[in-house]
């Protein structure tokens, strides 16, 4: 793909109203979730009972019949239901939420998941009427859910996509299986460099500076069962200056994280993420649908 693009921040969607704040702790019964399946070969679609094959630009995207009917209402695509996972202050969560309130993202944060009930991200969620779920169950958070109960809880909120925004726990395989190609994470380095277990926060930026790298920047990728190894969706380059401290580099990267996560959230909610036949996700330009990044 030769042409890069910037996603427009213009939107016709008005600010959203959020549900009443609450903290979820009781288990739900399991319910099925309508999912979007992307098949890289048409033969794969034969295994998905009740799904239709829709060939588009050499990529076969299989949607359930309910998706085909329900995703568009009165000529306007429905808002996507988003779950956001945080462990700390949640600045990227706040950036995406503010973009939603500003009408730039056709989605709604319907629930926040955290492993720290009193973290800044959870407090912000409650202040904005967003329900909070504690996960996982631990000695420090005995009211936290199990993996299966988390999947069931997200199903009750009819979650379409999950955005990790500084969530420091490994995502369980049960959740990855329930939301294939629907969980995204943002990492403060240019993956695959400086990623993996133990690489988070200031540790990443210290490692970048110590390596002598001249460039860094955020990466948004889909989540698999390992730390930071899922398919890369978007990256943005930030220079590493000669006398940078980890804190200075972190601040420069974070500014780009906030912008890029909001832009990617808009693309995801507008169904502009396309999967190439080789399994690489790319984003279709809103301004020029024939251009990709």
TrEMBL record:
Please write the reaction equations for the catalytic activity of this protein.
Answer: N(1)-(5-phospho-beta-D-ribosyl)glycinamide + (6R)-10-formyltetrahydrofolate = N(2)-formyl-N(1)-(5-phospho-beta-D-ribosyl)glycinamide + (6S)-5,6,7,8-tetrahydrofolate + H(+)
Name-wise, this protein is Phosphoribosylglycinamide formyltransferase, chloroplastic
Phylogenetic classification of the source organism: Eukaryota, Viridiplantae, Streptophyta, Embryophyta, Tracheophyta
Q: Which UniProt keywords apply?
A: Chloroplast, Plastid, Purine biosynthesis, Transferase, Transit peptide
Which E.C. number(s) belong to this protein?
A: 2.1.2.2
Look up the record and name the pathway of this protein: Purine metabolism; IMP biosynthesis via de novo pathway; N(2)-formyl-N(1)-(5-phospho-D-ribosyl)glycinamide from N(1)-(5-phospho-D-ribosyl)glycinamide (10-formyl THF route): step 1/1
Domain Formyl transferase N-terminal: start-end pairs: 80-264
Mind listing the GO molecular function terms for this protein? Answer: phosphoribosylglycinamide formyltransferase activity
């Amino acid at each position: 793909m030769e042409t890069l693009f910037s996603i427009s921040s213009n939107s016709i969607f008005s600010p959203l109203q959020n549900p009443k704040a609450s903290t979820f702790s009781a288990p739900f019964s399991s319910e099925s979730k309508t999912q979007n399946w992307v098949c890289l070969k048409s033969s794969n679609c034969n295994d998905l009972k009740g799904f239709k094959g829709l060939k588009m630009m050499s990529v076969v995207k299989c949607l359930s019949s309910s998706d085909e009917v329900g995703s568009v209402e009165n000529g306007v695509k429905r808002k996507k239901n988003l779950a956001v996972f945080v462990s700390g202050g949640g600045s990227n969560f706040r950036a995406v939420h503010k973009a939603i309130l500003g009408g730039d993202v056709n989605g709604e944060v319907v629930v926040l998941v955290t492993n720290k009930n009193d973290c800044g991200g959870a407090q912000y969620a409650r202040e904005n009427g967003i329900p909070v779920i504690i996960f996982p169950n631990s000695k420090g958070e005995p009211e936290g859910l199990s993996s299966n109960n988390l999947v069931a809880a997200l199903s009750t909120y009819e979650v379409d996509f999950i955005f990790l925004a500084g969530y420091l726990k490994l995502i369980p395989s049960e959740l990855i299986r329930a939301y294939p190609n629907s969980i995204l994470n943002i990492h403060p380095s240019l993956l695959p460099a400086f990623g993996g277990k133990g690489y988070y926060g200031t540790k990443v930026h210290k490692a970048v500076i110590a390596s002598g790298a001249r460039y860094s920047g955020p990466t948004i990728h889909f989540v698999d069962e390992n730390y930071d190894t899922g398919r890369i969706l978007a990256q943005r380059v930030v220079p590493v200056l000669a006398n940078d401290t980890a804190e200075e580099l972190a601040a420069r990267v974070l500014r780009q994280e906030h912008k890029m996560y909001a832009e990617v959230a808009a693309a995801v909610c507008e169904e502009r993420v396309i999967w190439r036949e080789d399994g690489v996700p790319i984003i279709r330009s809103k301004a020029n649908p024939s251009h990709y990044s």
